[in-house]
Request: fold
Amino acid sequence: MNKQLKKGLIDALPIFFGYLSVGFAFGIYALKSGFPIWSPILMSLTHISGTGQFALVKVANIGSGIFEICIAVTVLNIRYILMALAISQRLSPSISIWQRMMIAMADTDEIIAVALKQRTLVTFAYMMGLFLSSYAGWNLGTLLSVIGGTLLPQCVINALGIALYAMFVAIIIPDAKRFRPMLYCISIAAILNITLKFLPLCIRPNGSWSILIAGITAAVIISAIYPEKNATEQEQADNTLPQKEGE
Amino acid sequence: MNLTHTQILYAVLLTALITYLLRAVPLLLLRRQLTNPFLVALFKYMPFALLSAMIFPDIFNSTADITADAATKNGSPIPLISAIMGFVVALILSLKDKKLPTVAAAACGVAFIVERICTLLIF
Reply:
């Protein structure tokens, strides 16, 4: 098997288990809300987006029509634009337009975060490896919930709920430990997002807007103070070093 | 919910298309590497900042039963306790540069054990 593909499949194992649990919870939630049995499966196959799928069910649940559902999903998923822009800067130049269109399916918070952990430019095969593991977990979780919601005991599902968050912690902490600006950046974002939760109800942004406001503000502040060279320039600079440290 | 099966099908497919476009359009439009130092830094820090905002404070609610109805949620402190313990373990292992699967598995394991112990002690 292609070495990069295999690496991607393995690197995405925590996503597999995290998605297994969230996909499972999603299936239960959709069925409980009165959605027909085929719909959570179709949603997981075509969306691969936790926030979007939960929002669809929630908004439909309160009696909204298709238009409102589309607006809600769009607003909640604006974040993907930012994630896609970030990963676009790390894709190997050999990647074609068709391959980019396939990589777009893999544009979830979790997959992008793992891909960005790579110090070098990422290949198409690696992205597909990450995608296949994650896609399998997401859809297997949904399928399991539909064919038998009692297959996994609730206490196990609850504990799995922390998997993706723990993975996020493991992604941001090592960088924050090494680079001071990154530590400032994640601290500002976290403090801002928590602070926004304490605003009076009438002006408090909902969860998704709150994350966008906190994240964008923190990133803009830190980028203004600590501008950077791009990945290619950085690699060239690293290669000219007399002794390259092995990783 | 007052949607028919056909309407659900349309809603699912339409939102799937929207979601895909949000992901694909930026990737297709921005095909070169930026050189502006501010933008380079911005795209480096943005995902981390968003992830951090996603973690805090939501991680502390992550082990609660999200499928439970509001009526059956009895305000038990157990999910909060298991989530805090899971977070602490994830933080310590991350500081030691452990791999992602290790950190994720350890946090789940600890959250599970803490929940079991608390449940035994309380009931």
In short: Chain A touches chain B through 114 residues (CB under 8 Å).
